[in-house]
Each structure stands twice: as C-alpha cells, then as structure tokens.
Amino acid sequence: MNAQFKCYEKMVRDASYNKPGLYCNRTWDGWLCWDDTPAGTLSLQSCPNHLNDFNETEKATKYCDETGNWFKHPVTNQTWSNYTFCNIFTNYKIKRTMSSFASTENYDEITTEPSSVETAENLIRQKIMNAQFKCYEKMVRDASYNKPGLYCNRTWDGWLCWDDTPAGTLSLQSCPNHFNDFDETEKVTKYCDETGNWFKHPETNRTWSNYTFCNKFTDYKIKMARILYYMAVVGHTLSIISLLISLAIFFYFKSLSCQRITLHKNLFFSYVFNSVFTLIQLIVVANDKEVVSQNPVSIGKI
After folding, report:
1. Tens digit of pLDDT for each residue in 97-110?
2. Where is the G-protein coupled receptors family 2 profile domain (predicted)?
C-alpha cells in the first residue's frame, strides 16, 4: 500500500513526457511504479522486497512496444511485467551458500573468485532471457488450440515453454541447459488437470513444473565420471610403464634382435605414444573446466 501510494504521488508530481515520438504512459503494475517510457524500449528496475524469495539485486523488466503500448502477455492479454528473475536464482544462491559452509574448498572458491560466479550467473540469465523471448514469439505465432475438450493454455514457467495441453495430460520436455547440474537427457513434466488448469503445488499454491529429475542423478553421474576418469589415467600410466619396461628388455638383450621383435618394438612404441597423448588430453583438456564449458558436445563423448 505504501509503495502504491508513493507511486501515485510520483505520477502526479512528475512533469509530463515531452520528448518526441510514441511512448508508454507511467503506470503502477501492482508491485512497482513505472515511468513514461519511449516506444521500443525495455525498462528495468530492481526487484521489490515485497516477498521473502525476491532478490533485490536482480531486475524486473517491462517492455514498451513500438506502438507505444505496454507489452501484453499472449495468454492473458493483460499488460505484463517480467518478475521472473526476482526469484529465479534464489534457490541456486541458497544452495551455493549452504554448500560454502559445508565445504571449505567450495567456500574458498566462492570467496576468492566472485567474478567467475557473476559471469556464470550472467550466462544463465542470458540463456533464460533468450529462451523466454523465443517462447513468447512462439506463443504469438502458433495457431489457437482448436481440439474439443478442456485444455491448459500455453505458458512460460520461467525456464521452459509449454504448449496448449489437453486436460488430464502429463506434458514432457527435455531438461533445459540453463544450469551446469541439469542433465538434458532427463525429462521435465507439467500436469494439466481434468479441469483444464495447470497443476499447482500444494505448499505454494502456484503453478508448478516438475524439474526434480533434472539434477536428481547429477551427483551420481559426476561421481561415476570421476571414477572412470581416474581409472583411465591410472590405466594409461601403468600401460606406459609396462611398455617402457618391455622396450628396455628388447633393446638390452641384443640376442632378441630379429624382424618379429622389431615389429613388436614398433607396436609398443605406437601404444606408448597413444597412451601419452591420451593422458595429455585427459589431464590438460578434459580437466580444464573452462575448456569443457566452452565445448559441451565433446565432453559428452569423453
């Protein structure tokens, strides 16, 4: 109520918009006050502190389209402000903070390299914004649902885009790649109930998509990958040692010199070089987080 009262006071007090061109009128959207905004402009503000899970360091956005009208949500056809990022990173940051207390190693990483964390969050934010923009484009472009019976309206849930879905149907999609611990081979589900409404979580009473499986097995898969990684390193190291011992024996005993032994020497040398280059690839390339993050396709093959 205080924010709304101050907003109306500000709207009355501020001078009229006097710049050339179309613009969107100043308005109160229910949570924040928005000034007159030139057409074709995305207005940004810090998130409000009305809700406990809202992060004031994130930004809320409101788009003034080229015709001088505030953007309308394609489903509700009502003017809409984007508060998606106000709480989208809340759980992620809480999880990161808790892990920092649980692990000294993680704590050191977070405190000594804040720029890396900020860069990662910016990349995540950019991915989600691009996905959101494409989602709204798709919702506007796709034809209206024309099948008989009740259905749930197409929607954007903050991470993924969902099409119109018949009532009583469970919709599935592959997990998004927004977060490092999300496995794209797993599935996200969203249930459209028999009344034609998206399922609401019983605790929050908000529409809810099930991303549980996106990172449920991540820790296990990472653990198995690490085991296989160290097995490969140890295996190739032992292979090099045993091959070098064999080559030393072949070279030491001159009586073993013959065409067949020469072929074995060349074969062993090729195995040594193969193991050496494999170890270089495993230790220098596969173990470099920055290289791996820039080349997610190849890491799936390692």
Report:
1. 544 444 334 434 33
2. 6-90, 134-218
